[in-house]
Design a protein that fits this description.
Strand order of the largest sheet: 2-1-3-4
CATH architecture: 3-Layer(aba) Sandwich
Strand content: 15-25%
Structural class: alpha+beta
Number of strands: 6
Number of domains: 1
Largest sheet: 4 strands, mixed
CATH topology: Glutaredoxin
CATH class: Alpha Beta
Order of helices and strands: EHEHHEEEE
Shape: elongated
Number of helices: 3
Distance between the termini: 25 Å
Helix content: 10-25%
CATH superfamily: Glutaredoxin
Length: 140
């Protein structure tokens, strides 16, 4: 299965998501989107395919979101996309694209919805939260 993760190695959620993909036996294509941001068309497609609005896909924490006035509800999707492409830290992370769908993996275990059920054992996130049991089944 081809899997692409738009990754920020400084982000715990992104690291956990990458580790879950690998625990499924998949080595994904890793795109560090801060260095290599998606095109506008690809960003629009990922957001739509994930079932999100542009506003839901923008990151406010740890970004210039407030300083840029992006919380203004009158801003259009095009204006928000312009800001995200100009400053990719505003793109929420991590987006994951597979043949089973696209997701903004927040929380990281959302990625399990678009991965094959090939996990071979337990998975615990960096913060100690167990996501998969010893049989590789999702803990609800």
């Amino acid at each position: 299965m081809n899997v692409t993760i738009y990754h920020n190695p400084q982000c715990g959620t992104s690291r956990n998501t990458l580790a879950m993909i690998r625990s499924a036996g998949i080595e994904p294509d890793i795109i560090e989107y801060l260095k290599d941001p998606p095109s506008r068309a690809l960003l629009v497609k990922m957001i739509a395919d994930a079932g999100l609005t542009v506003r839901q896909a923008i990151r406010d924490k740890g970004t210039p979101y407030a300083k840029l006035g992006l919380d203004n509800p009158t801003l259009t999707d095009d204006q928000l996309l312009d800001a995200m492409l100009k400053d990719p830290i505003l793109i929420n992370r991590p987006f994951v694209v597979t043949s089973l769908g696209s997701r903004l993996a927040r929380p990281s275990e959302v990625v399990l919805d678009i991965l094959p059920d090939t996990h071979k054992g337990a998975f615990t996130k960096e913060d100690g939260e167990q996501v998969l049991d010893a049989e590789g089944k999702r803990i609800v």
